[in-house]
Amino acid sequence: MARPRVVATDLDNTLLRTDRTVSPRTEAALRAAADAGVLVVPVTARQRVGVLAVAPQFVQLAEAFGGWAVCSNGALGLDLVTGQRFFEATMTVDAQRDLIARLAEAVPDVRFCAIRDGGDGFLVEAGYAELSVWEDHSRDPRTMQVVDRAALADCPNLKMVVRHPVLSTRDLLAAFAGLGLTGLRATSSGAPFLEISAAGIGKAYGLQRLTALLDVPATQVVAFGDGLNDLDMLQWAGVGVAVANAEPELLAVADRIVPSCDQDGFAETLEALLS
């Protein structure tokens, strides 16, 4: 592969190891990319607070990397250091209300969360926090703001999260698909919940918005990922790279499959791109 201008990467189980740490080899590769003028951008389901919690190296290298990040599964582009927002894509209130009413009827015991206000607004209904751990959202469940279900949909959200005490994410994806809802898109990042954004909004959308700002064509972008929410990004980029621990759907379409996140597949490939 030729040296790209932009390396777009998922974080969890791609750049990050399964223990959610950045390996010394990966940190060295990130610094080498900064020195070489290659822009590495986290493209993640996480919000700004979540990126800062697990990958502070991106802020430490902000001057070289520009501070760019695409968060909330492509719905939000921002500067990690300042928090300045460059674009946002939200769902309509009507679509959110329809989602809550119909999915709750079809799947009893689901619990909803709403993410808004550039990722700083994080609202949950009663029962959601009890199903959560800190690692889910880089937030202490005991501090989550609990509101009634109607308040979750009273203004446009970047993303809504749906979880269930028993059903898997694949089960929830199937249930969502069976409803035939319009104006919405559901995906999974590998976390134990469903993630819902506006129709047409995904990591490919967010990465395309960012690279348009930077005047970088898709052919000069390499994208890394492992989860279902990375699928459209890998297909859009000039080169799509799946780590070996990726979901089968990604392994089937990736231009290149590299060692797993625990075997430094991201770092090994970035080193090769820079050489």
TrEMBL record:
Pfam families to which the protein is assigned, alphabetical: Hydrolase_3 (PF08282)
GO cellular component: cytosol
Annotated GO MF terms: magnesium ion binding; phosphatase activity
InterPro entries, per the entry: HAD-like_sf, HAD-SF_hydro_IIB, HAD_sf
Highest taxon of the lineage: Bacteria
Record keywords: Hydrolase
Record-given protein name: HAD-IIB family hydrolase
The species this protein was found in: Raineyella fluvialis
Top-level taxonomy: Bacteria, Bacillati, Actinomycetota, Actinomycetes, Propionibacteriales
